[in-house]
Amino acid sequence: MIRSALITLALGLVQLALVLILSPLLLGIVSRVKAMAAGRVGPPLLQLYYDLAKLARKDAVFSRSTTWVFLVGPLAAVAIPASAALLVPMGSGRGPLGFTGDLILFAYLFAMARFLTVLSALDTGSSFEGMGAAREVAYSALAEPALFLGLAALASFSGSLSLGPLLTAAGQGWGVASGPLILVLAGWALVFLVENCRIPFDDPNTHLELTMIHEVMVLDHSGPPLGLVLYGASMKFMVLGTLLVKVCLPTSGNPWIDWPAFLLGLGALAVGVGLVESVMARLRLNRVPQLLVVAVLSCAFAFLMLLLQPVSK
Amino acid sequence: MLASLFLATVLIAALSGLPGLLGKDLDGKGAARLLALSALGGLGVAGATLAGPGWALDLAWSLPGARFTLRGDALGALFLMPVALVPAILAHYGTAYWPDSEHDRAPTLRFCFGLAVAAITLLCFAANAILFLVAWEVMAITCFLMVASEDRDAEVREASWIYLVAAHTGTLCLFGGFALVASARGSFDLGPIPMGWASGLPGTLAFLLFLMGFSLKAGLMPVHVWLPVAHAAAPSHVSAFLSGLITKMGILGLVRVMTWIPDPPLWWGGTLLTVGGLSAVLGLAFALGQRDMKRALAYSTIENIGLIAMGLGLAGVGKSTGNGTLVMLAGSGALLHVLNHSLFKSLLFLGAGSVAHATGTRNLERLGGLLKTMPWTGALFLVGATAIAGLPPFNGFVSEWLIYLGAFQSLPGWAWGACAIFALCLAGGLALATFARLFGITFLGEPRSETTHLADESPQPMLSAMKLLAAGCALIGLAPFLVFPVLDRAVSSLGPNLPYLRTQASPGLLSLVNALGLGFAWIAWLSLRNMASRPSGTWDCGYAAPTSRIQYTASSFAQLLEEPFRWALWPVRHLPRIRGLFPGPSHFRTEVPDPVLDRGLKPLFTVSSWVLGWMRVLQAGHLPIYLLYVVLTLVALLAWTLT
Description:
Largest sheet of chain A: none
Oligomer: heterodimer
Structural class of chain A: mainly alpha
Strand content of chain A: under 5%
Number of helices of chain B: 26
Number of domains of chain B: 3
Helix content of chain A: 55-70%
Largest interface: A-B, 79 and 83 residues
Radius of gyration of chain B: 26 Å
Distance between the termini of chain B: 69 Å
Order of helices and strands of chain A: HHEHHHHHHHH
Helix content of chain B: 55-70%
Largest sheet of chain B: 2 strands, antiparallel
Shape of chain B: globular
């Protein structure tokens, strides 16, 4: 009893430390890959760490229109990926605090972060941030069903309602149910890109407020709160990326293989995102919902395929 | 003992408004105290019923077929908890919100309020069809009188008529349903019905009648017509009462029907699930289109009732397919949502009432920036908005989580569960948008009109009522394990041999993750606490003189999400007309009328009243003509008997 509690505690601390320490590196890899693909040298791999250190030392500027709600968004942006990191399995087959039904909490935690970000955007009273907030809630309302239908497909495949066993079973399922897994992976990859505001849905580097979704919501944040927003975004990238990596990776049961494989998988995901951003342009805004519907349909088809062809495990 | 305590509770509630009616109770402070006393009694009865084996009371009654039968069971006790607690809080709010000095109808309103509370308290345990219908009718009529409180306004008169027509159509359906049940059981006593009845013709008919009758009260689509108009027209604490408790009586009826039937056909659960899913998604789509705060909240009530119906539908499917875990999870999700919704929806209606009280408008396009002038009301409204959007760490998440678990649980055997999951998460995304809009447009940014600048924070009784409700939302959200034993007891009546809820879901770890999230947020706050900051204007992208008029509006915030639902919403667009080389000022406006009421029922009733108007030729009102009718009838009868 005490031993298993200690193991859980250790696992939780390891996962939390990994997310806290490694996540800015992933975004460094993305921008390095983009630079290399464009034939540039690009910023150093650790650029985001430097940025965060710089922002932490700066003063903040607050609009006179804002209230305490303006600060709640950045706090949630960091706190929520950190707590969600305790639900997902990383190198092992289970999340440290995993329980039956944690997949719903996982999705709704990120919804809470989105809610508070949207409110802190509306708090400035700027029409640009209002516009970004409206887009964010509209597109996430379409992205959420894709995530959940994918979870439903994997839940009926694995017979579990906890992220740990569910994702592990999916990783072991290649060969038995490759078709549905590919469809879920495709749908989730789109959800991953829209949730992390990457091209083709959103461009984190653009300065044209009218075309942005997420970035426009944090236009008014500065100094340490902006640092928290950027840090939170990188943590979200890593935690949501874990879902994709675990679906792709079979688990061997040997921690000396599984943990390095998982970290390499995350690196590969960052490289993949960098490549997608290099070869694609940002979609026209009215095309975004269509691509999200494709994600929903892809996950729905995966569910139907598993239904018509029950897999014996 | 418990029965006498319960009857005393009902009696105190019923008489709470009487001193006010006699002019002895200024602003209803005494009525609020009496209701608080009856709330204590009600909670005591609920607690003792849940802890003990239950109780019964059976008294003779001179009406034919009727007996005054009460059966104290765990299910009724669960409904009794909000029914006892919330009205006392609302009455406390009402002492400051509807004082005698501003409203001459206030004593009448409080008298009706007390009677309505007594009626719904009785409904929780009523075990005789006639008693149930009598209490039901008292509830309907007192609510009609409360909705009509400000009947100098034509809009209010129309709303109260719509409510009365809807309520009585529902009661008519219930007459049919209870008559069919009585013929199956042989008496008007309510209780289990023999196997096999449900799948026959009488069972089918009874189910449809009950579904219609109880949905009309609960507000499921497409028979939700009275909710938006009545909730907007009534005083806010009455809106909270209607939305938080009266609609729940429809749910109570549906749950009771489920407990009587040992073998419901699969399509019963499926129908309830479909109707619930449609109400959940479309209710929010309509809420997004509203500019009136209280109308938006009323449509969100339709959504929440939809979620509860989805939970009940899933539980019904579980009962039909013999999946006890599904019955347990979905059933307890639905019942917990009944409790939760009565807390956070009351909180939100009270918040909307405070805003309307302070600014004189409910129109979102004229509000804004209220968090600075009404900090407490704003913070408490935010708690309610977060809870109702189903976001952790508040109570709305816990009940939605249980319904989700039920939907996932149904999957291996019943693939339609995937549609339930789809509807649930679509509703989740839309709820987030609706309540981000409602809170953000009202309380954040800059004021959109002059009156909003002048708003003052609400007085203490209004704030303390809202604080109590918000504390309830936070308590159930952060410590859901407190309510799990209650759910275990209450849901066990839905089916035989159900597993324990605590073996199927682990609220402890849920609380732990929520607590850790709050802890992390606190650590992040510590890191910000000592930063240096300076004030400035909002970054305006180069505009030299930003005004509050260039803020994003409520309508534009909703526009992107309304687009995919145009097939259901049928929004009306008033487009600007631009003519000539130098067009004058113009404006663009969209609004979302209720399609069932404004496009379906109202034209239908207009046409039918025109057609029936021709019948008035026969009813001219002259005595000789009626005498002529009598003579003609006699002659006709004579001719008929002779041939």
